[in-house]
Sequence to fold (238 residues):
Amino acid sequence: MKYRRVLLKLSGEALMGQQSYGIDPEVLERYAQEIQSVTSQGVQMAIVIGGGNIYRGVQGVANGMIDRAQGDYMGMLATVINAMALQGALENLGLYTRLLSAIKMEQICEPFIRRRAIRHLEKGRVVIFGAGTGNPYFTTDTAASLRAVEIEADVVLKGTRVDGVYTADPEKDLNAIKFDTISFGEVYERGLSVMDMTAITLCRENDIPIVVFNMNTEGNLLKLVRGEEVGTLVNQGA
Fold:
């Protein structure tokens, strides 16, 4: 295996499948099976998942309903709901898991403690990080990069519905060109939507590569950790 310990970032929207909101049980089960295929090879797996399928704080702010901080906290709670759903799907497959939250809610998950998270990984448990960073004004992309740095992950794997990083949105621009590899610097220069810039900077400063790939293609996750060329690799470059 190319990677020993990975941080998988999943979007909440991906869990909707073809629905307009909520969680599609078939998508949830498929993702759990993909994760199981990797952990069965001895790879240590940590996961951060978004909450956009349930609530997006930015939308609430735009509608004038609430202020930004309140909306972000609501979004953090949405990520915990998704994390609990994924935890249940993984445990249905016989995997051992731990859900660690940046916001204390002891009845349903452990508080995030860095050393405890690493110990869970060393014991072969899948660790799911909920509630983002625990602070407003930060995205779950940033939470993923932060947790990856804290647990000393080898790579951040960003599972999306497209197969990598393009010069433009491939769903809108048929002439968009895919990158096989791209440097952090070029991501900045081109203003590409790989992850938000805070997340990119965290990975760049701590020399953690990012791989953007299509999570909906069966077997992609396992291929990646084996070292096969899947998606787009973002790193320090030459």
Observations:
- DSSP finds eight helices and eleven strands in the chain.
- The longest helix spans residues 68-92.
- The longest strand covers residues 5-10.
- The chain has one domain: 8-235.
